[in-house]
Design a protein that fits this description.
The chain is α+β, with helices and mostly antiparallel strands and about 325 residues long. The chain is about 40% helix and about 20% strand. It has 13 helices and eleven strands. It has helices at about 15-20, 25-35, 50-55, 65-70, 110-125, 155-160, 175-190, 190-200, 230-235, 240-250, 255-265, 295-305, 305-310, and strands spanning about 1-10, 35-40, 85-90, 90-95, 100, 130-135, 140-145, 205-210, 225, 275-280, 285-290.
Length: about 325
């Protein structure tokens, strides 16, 4: 059992202030019971957020975690050695001084709508040697040699945020930016968008490319972990009340369940060790169940700081 919690301590001033009032009894219990295991440092400007680096065991360069290649492996007749990316249909809002992405989740794309948009866009991609493959309504795959070695920002960096700092700037990325512009013109008058506007739904007017990176044969296995994303949306809005409520729900739900499992196991670690990773903007810290002597357990209980102290350090 491995739980990963992104946005455990976001940078927004309102959420930072809410840390002082946060009561998380089950997290406190877990941090007393589990032992510090590892720490990973990052920057808020990294293309790959810390939670994704944790899951990939920090085995790839920034912006080149091969999420798309992993998804492509499940496809029939996957081309060997191909380069892949993830395409997320999205709505980009153009403002006077920046471009922002609506959270793709609010699009609520139907599979039929998504497939129709893919069919309209596919010929333009194919002209540049890029082949689109449908995965699900909100996620497609794209395959082409131009993607090889092209770093891209995770969708989690731009979801509901300004996209300008995250637009790919390399020479190879000029093709991606051109395609984004062409798709805005193509999709503006597409019948799917006409129907969506008529019913008050947001238009799909662009796409985001992410998950690029090659998958070598000897790569360490990705962690089998459960990512709990409940803190993300309120953290990005710096909504302290919603973020606090989401933290309390995690504490009384998944963290309480983990604490209960540990209580039933006692000090035995014969089963898969319970592991908890908390991710902030700059640091991800992992705690794991490990054998400890009675004196170590007593010392840990006496020295344990409140959870908010750990969260502030992320």
């Amino acid at each position: 059992m491995h739980l990963v919690i992104p946005f455990a301590a976001p940078a927004g001033p309102q959420c930072q202030a809410a840390l002082e009032r946060l009561e998380l009894p089950h997290l406190k219990s877990l941090l007393r019971t589990l032992s510090p295991h590892s720490e990973l440092q990052g920057q808020a400007s990294d293309l790959s957020p810390l939670s994704e680096r944790v899951l990939s065991q920090n085995a790839f360069a920034d912006g080149l975690i091969p999420w798309a290649a992993l998804r492509a492996c499940a496809l029939p007749h996957t081309p060997l050695g191909a380069s892949w990316g993830l395409i997320s249909p999205c709505h980009l809002a153009v403002h006077a001084d920046h471009i922002a992405m609506h959270d793709p989740a609010v699009l609520r794309l139907e599979a039929e709508e998504s497939q129709a948009l893919l069919q309209a866009m596919a010929p333009y991609f194919l002209e540049d040697g890029l082949v689109l493959h449908f995965l699900q309504a909100d996620t497609w795959l794209v395959q082409g040699d131009v993607l090889r070695g092209l770093p891209t920002a995770s969708l989690e960096r731009v979801r509901g945020q300004k996209v300008d700092p995250w637009m790919p700037r390399t020479e190879a990325a000029r093709l991606v930016r051109r395609l984004q512009n062409e798709m805005q013109m193509l999709l503006y008058t597409h019948p799917i968008n006409d129907a969506r506007v008529a019913r008050g739904a947001p238009m799909v007017n662009s796409f985001w490319l992410s998950g690029t990176g090659d998958l070598p044969a000897n790569v360490p296995p990705f962690l089998q972990a459960t990512v709990l994303n409940a803190l993300q949306a309120p953290a990005l809005r710096d909504d302290a009340a919603a973020w606090t409520q989401a933290w309390q729900a995690l504490d009384s739900g998944p963290l309480a369940d983990m604490a209960q499992v540990l209580g039933q196991r006692g000090h035995s670690v014969d089963a898969e060790p319970a592991t908890l990773t908390l991710c902030g903007n700059h640091t991800a810290r992992t705690w794991r169940q490990q054998p400890r002597s009675l004196l170590q357990r007593i010392g840990s209980a006496l020295r344990s700081a409140p959870p908010t102290a750990f969260l502030k350090s992320l």
